UniProtKB/TrEMBL annotation:
Protein name according to UniProt: Amino acid permease
Domain of life: Bacteria
Main location: membrane
Residues of the Amino acid permease/ SLC12A domain: 32-441
Family annotation (InterPro entries): AA-permease/SLC12A_dom (IPR004841), APC_superfamily (IPR050367)
Taxonomic lineage of the native organism: Bacteria, Bacillati, Bacillota, Bacilli, Bacillales
A GO cellular component annotation in the UniProt record: membrane
The keyword Transmembrane belongs to this UniProt entry's keyword annotation: yes
Length: 452
C-alpha cells in the first residue's frame, strides 16, 4: 500500500462530523447563543449607567464587535476546521500560544451553559415555585445535553424553533411598547433622538462604560466558527454567518432598548434594576406580556445552553485531536450520532455542579475574561497570518480592521474588575503548568503540526 493510500485510509478512519449546517443554520446558531432577549439581563443597570442612552451604547458595541466578527470570518476561511480561537492562533501565530488561546476561550464556553442553567432555573422557579431551583437545573441540563448528543442537526432544528419563539416575543414586546408610546404622545412620539443622544445627560465615559457592558451581549457569534467541520460550505458560510449574526443581533438589541427607553424614560426609578424590563413590560402590556417575557427568558436559556455546550464540546474535540488534551477521551464520537458524547456529558456535569454551588454574579464576571482574550488572539491571528506570513499587503483589510478589533478588546479587557483579572490569570497559570508537563517544557508540538 502506498504512503498516500495509507494516509487516506487514516483520514477516513479518523473521527469526523457530519456536514449538515447551512448558512441559515449558522446564523440562527449565533443569534441563539447571544439570545434575542439578551437586553433583559443587563437593561436596568446599563440604562442607568448610560443615562438612558443604552441604544447608543448598543450601537457602539455592535460596531466594535463587527471588527472581531470580521476577523473570525477571515480565519474561518483560511482554516475551515473545528476549534475556532484555538485553531486560528495555533496555525497563524504559534502552536503553544494557540493552546493558551483555547484554554482562555474554554473558560468562556464552559461558563455560558453554566450561567444560563442558573438564570433559567431561577426564572423557572419564580414562575413555578412548587418546583425547586435544583430540580429546574437538572431539567434544563438534561434536555440540553440529550439534544446535543442526538446531533447538531437536531440542535439546529431545535434552535430554529426556539429562536423563532423568542423573535415573536420580541416583536410582541416592541409592538406593545410602541402602542404605549403612541397612547401617551401620538405617533410622532415613536421617533426620538433622546435614546441615542440626550445633551443634558451625555457623558462620554459613561457611554463607553455602557458599551463595554453591552459588548457581552454579543458573546456568541464566535461560537459559529467551532462548527466549521459541520458546515456544508465553511469557506463561504462561516464568515458570512459571523458578521450577519452580529449585525442582526445588534439591531434586535438596539430596537428593544430604544422602545423600552421611550416607555420608561426615568431609568433611575425601576422597582429593581435586575428586572427592569419586567417593569416596562408590565406598563406596556400588563401581566400577560410580563408572563410571556418571563417564558421567553427561560427559553433563551435553552438556546444559549445548546449552543454553548455544543461549542465547548467541539473546542475540546479539536484540542484532543491535537493531543493537547487526552485524545482517547476527548475525540470519542458517538457511533450513531457522530457527536463528542464524552465532552457533552462532561460539560453537562460541570454546568450542573456550577449552577448548584456558584453565584450568578461570580460566574458572570468571569465570562468576559475568556471571551475578550479569545477575541484579541483572533484579531492578532489575522494580522500575523495574512499581512505578515502570506504578505497580502491589504492595509485596511488585514491590518487596520483587525488592529482596531484588538485595541477595542484590549481596552475593555484592562477595565475588567480586579477580581475577574485575578481569577482569570489563575486559570491561565493552571494552563501553563498543564502545558509545561504535556509538552515537556514546550518542546513537543501537537502531532497535527509536526509534519507541516
Amino acid at each position: 500500500m502506498s504512503h498516500g493510500q495509507s494516509n487516506a485510509n487514516q483520514d477516513s478512519a479518523a473521527p469526523h462530523f457530519k456536514r449538515v449546517l447551512t448558512l441559515k443554520d449558522l446564523v440562527i446558531y449565533g443569534i441563539a447563543f447571544m439570545t434575542p432577549i439578551a437586553p433583559a439581563y443587563i437593561y436596568g443597570f446599563a440604562a442607568q449607567s448610560t443615562g438612558g442612552m443604552l441604544p447608543l451604547a448598543y450601537l457602539i458595541a455592535m460596531v466594535a464587535m463587527m471588527f472581531s466578527a470580521y476577523s473570525y470570518g477571515r480565519m474561518a476561511a483560511a482554516f475551515p476546521v473545528s476549534g475556532s480561537t484555538y485553531t486560528y492562533t495555533q496555525r497563524a501565530i504559534h502552536p503553544h500560544l494557540g493552546f493558551f488561546a483555547g484554554w482562555a476561550m474554554f473558560m468562556d464556553y464552559v461558563l455560558v451553559p453554566l450561567i444560563v442553567f442558573m438564570v433559567g432555573a431561577s426564572y423557572a422557579n419564580a414562575l413555578i415555585p412548587s418546583i425547586p431551583y435544583w430540580v429546574w437545573v437538572f431539567i434544563i441540563a438534561g434536555v440540553i445535553t440529550v439534544v446535543n448528543i442526538l446531533g447538531i442537526a437536531v440542535a439546529a432544528k431545535t434552535n430554529q424553533i426556539l429562536v423563532l419563539f423568542m423573535g415573536i416575543v420580541v416583536v410582541i414586546f416592541v409592538i406593545f411598547c410602541m402602542k404605549a408610546i403612541m397612547g401617551e404622545g401620538g405617533a410622532s412620539a415613536v421617533v426620538s433622538i433622546t435614546p441615542f443622544f440626550n445633551s443634558e445627560k451625555f457623558v462620554m465615559t459613561a457611554i463607553i462604560s455602557g458599551a463595554a457592558m453591552a459588548c457581552f451581549s454579543f458573546l456568541g457569534f464566535d461560537s459559529i466558527t467551532t462548527l466549521s467541520e459541520e458546515s456544508v460550505n465553511p469557506q463561504n458560510d462561516i464568515w458570512k454567518a459571523a458578521i450577519l449574526s452580529c449585525l442582526i443581533g445588534g439591531i434586535i438589541f438596539i430596537v428593544q432598548a430604544y422602545v423600552a427607553q421611550l416607555v420608561w424614560p426615568d431609568v433611575n426609578n425601576f422597582s429593581s434594576a435586575d428586572t427592569a424590563l419586567f417593569d416596562i413590560a408590565n406598563v406596556a402590556g400588563g401581566a400577560v406580556l410580563v408572563t410571556l417575557y418571563t417564558v421567553a427568558i427561560i427559553v433563551s436559556t435553552f438556546t444559549a445552553g445548546l449552543t454553548g455546550q455544543a461549542s465547548a464540546s467541539r473546542l475540546m474535540f479539536s484540542m484532543g485531536r491535537d493531543e493537547v488534551l487526552p485524545k482517547k477521551f476527548f475525540t470519542h464520537l458517538h457511533p450513531k450520532y457522530k457527536t463528542p458524547i464524552y465532552n457533552i456529558l462532561l460539560m453537562g456535569s460541570i454546568s450542573i455542579a456550577g449552577a448548584l454551588f456558584l453565584s450568578i454574579d461570580f460566574v458572570a464576571e468571569l465570562m468576559s475574561f475568556g471571551g475578550l482574550t479569545g477575541f484579541m488572539f483572533v484579531n492578532l491571528s489575522v494580522i500575523v497570518y495574512y499581512y505578515f506570513r502570506k504578505k497580502e499587503k491589504k492595509f485596511v483589510r488585514y491590518l487596520v480592521i483587525p488592529g482596531l478589533g484588538f485595541l477595542i478588546c484590549f481596552y475593555l479587557f484592562i477595565n475588567l474588575s480586579p477580581l475577574t483579572l485575578k481569577v482569570g490569570f489563575i486559570w491561565l497559570a493552571i494552563g501553563v503548568v498543564y502545558a509545561l508537563i504535556t509538552t515537556k517544557g514546550f518542546k513537543k508540538l501537537p502531532p497535527s503540526l509536526i509534519d507541516s
